[in-house]
Amino acid sequence: MKILLAPSETKVGGGRDVFILNKLLFSNLTQTRTELLHRYINIIQKNDKKVLSKMFGLKKEKDIEYHTKDIVHELTMKAIERYTGVAFDYLGYNQLNREAQQYIDNNAILCSNLFGFLRADDMIPEYRLKQGESIGDLKPEKLYKKQSYLMEDYLQSEDILDLRATFYDKFYKPTKAYTTLKFIKNGKVVSHWAKAYRGIVLREIAKAKIETLEEFMNLPIEKLSIDEIHKKKNRTEIIYIIES
Q1: What is the mean pLDDT of the chain?
Q2: Helix (H), strand (E), coil (C) string for the chain
């Protein structure tokens, strides 16, 4: 089973290894990634604060200045460690044992606004790009969507659990059967805090080393109970009730 994750705009700084672009998932994407990186760095070098503010999604000058780096020469860490935010906090990757971490490294795929499709253990530098923003006149989601057949081939024989926000359908939307989750509390759909429960679900999947959706459906998760399962075309939606 492969689990699809959205990235976060916030990231941890630092790293330990040099950046090697063609070692990322799908070497066929190297040309697209190179084009986006060149445009990204060129915009940074022009140092137009108004343009950078929009591209980064930041307002404070010191925050904008922090991200004006030549990221190609910055140190890297695993993508799953690089991203921060609610889902990643609740996943707690660094608190998991080695086997659970290895499961995530092997089975989680992130969808980066800059680098496209990534394995959880792909080594990436710190960067900043607001969700949905163009890089100059390039729209990353359109460039990667054209090559989403790579994901189709990669996931051909896999069960798919899609934990991404719907925005990332613009990069890749499965044409084969896949499963999504919805969380309900006190009769209302949970939106922002759904990220927390996605992190919790992934953590429990990794700890149990789940291999199929059937196994996942039978996985007990504290404070979550399955209420309904909706199927439409190739999409199955599991609706969880969050218990108080």
Answers
A1: 96
A2: CEEEECCCCCECCCCCECCCHHHCCCHHHHHHHHHHHHHHHHHHHHCCHHHHHHHHCCCCHHHHHHCCCCHHHCCEEEHHHHECCHHHHHHCHHHCCHHHHHHHHHHEEEEECCCEEEECCCEEECCCCCCCCCECCECHHHHHHCCCHHHHHHCCCCCEEECCCHHHHHCCCCCCCEEEEEEEECCEECCCCHHHHHHHHHHHHHHHCCCCHHHHHCCCECCEEEEEEEEECCEEEEEEEECC
